[in-house]
Amino acid sequence: MPYGYLDESVPRGINVAGSANVLLYPETAAPICITDSHIYRGAYSTPGPANPPTILGHEAMGVVSEIGSAITPLNVGDDVVIPGKIDNTHLSMEPQQYIPFDYFFLPDIFPMAWPTLHYSAFRLGDTVAIFGAGPVGLLATYSASPRGASKVYSADSVPSRLALAESIGAISISLNASDLVQQILAQEPGGIQRAVDCVGYEGVNSSLLPQTDTTLQQMTNLTARYGGIGIAGVYGPDTNMNPDLPPLPLFSKAISVRMGAMNPLLYPPLLENLVTIGKVKPNFIVSTQVGIGQAPEMYRTFNEHR
């Protein structure tokens, strides 16, 4: 690992500076995001000092401790969720009741997973293959059936993740068995209508060895003529972190491709409403709850796919 990891306390003596600021204290909980794992492995850096430490974590829940005079409609004592991207905004999400772990996914991961089907140009009745059954992939899988997918395939190499995908109605495809594409084509001879990349540059090939362009090559081979590909997986600024994908296979099958990062203003209000009325319960992906002191060990666990 490129860095060491520790749990460090920050003194309480932080005050609100400016009428438009909000202080959250204490932060109640924060998940480990797959983006953090890229930083953990040294593949990405974050804005800030040239030297470590880098503070990991960019989505959280907390309690409003202090507010500036220009802040509305927040009040001291409000429970809030904090998205990974914040600008000058008046986004207000105030559910009538608080269900800790269902609302917990509104800052980032659920809004990241939900639009992947839009990116693939999904239509009612389509077959869908989700590449990757980590948290984003599982929530993308979870999002497909309620929106009318006829079949949803979930592909990964981790048995526990595939078991969780099966528990929400997906057909699991193991990278540890035979060729992934051939496994699905055996059930869908004409190919899949929509394929979604929830892996990114850290994909592995059929030998489970790292290969940046594996997922996009597999999706191109698997997607049916006039189908669509949606990409939520992250690719990097370095040449060895970007796929080498010739356009001819996409062109010859007239496959559409769309990708994008999470939109913190568009999808959280929609998903907050679905959580509030009980239509979605994304907390099924929670496997472990720990205190902040165990965070370094949890980063190691997450990195090892345990």
Automatic annotation (TrEMBL):
<feature type="domain" description="Alcohol dehydrogenase-like N-terminal">
    <location>
        <begin position="29"/>
        <end position="83"/>
    </location>
</feature>
<keyword id="KW-0520">NAD</keyword>
<dbReference type="InterPro" id="IPR013154">
    <property type="entry name" value="ADH-like_N"/>
</dbReference>
<dbReference type="Pfam" id="PF08240">
    <property type="entry name" value="ADH_N"/>
</dbReference>
<dbReference type="InterPro" id="IPR013149">
    <property type="entry name" value="ADH-like_C"/>
</dbReference>
<comment type="similarity">
    <text>Belongs to the zinc-containing alcohol dehydrogenase family.</text>
</comment>
<keyword id="KW-0862">Zinc</keyword>
<dbReference type="Pfam" id="PF00107">
    <property type="entry name" value="ADH_zinc_N"/>
</dbReference>
<dbReference type="GO" id="GO:0008270">
    <property type="term" value="F:zinc ion binding"/>
</dbReference>
<keyword id="KW-0479">Metal-binding</keyword>
<feature type="domain" description="Alcohol dehydrogenase-like C-terminal">
    <location>
        <begin position="135"/>
        <end position="259"/>
    </location>
</feature>
<protein>
    <submittedName>
        <fullName>NAD(P)-binding protein</fullName>
    </submittedName>
</protein>
<dbReference type="InterPro" id="IPR011032">
    <property type="entry name" value="GroES-like_sf"/>
</dbReference>
<dbReference type="InterPro" id="IPR002328">
    <property type="entry name" value="ADH_Zn_CS"/>
</dbReference>
<dbReference type="GO" id="GO:0016491">
    <property type="term" value="F:oxidoreductase activity"/>
</dbReference>
<keyword id="KW-0560">Oxidoreductase</keyword>
<dbReference type="InterPro" id="IPR036291">
    <property type="entry name" value="NAD(P)-bd_dom_sf"/>
</dbReference>
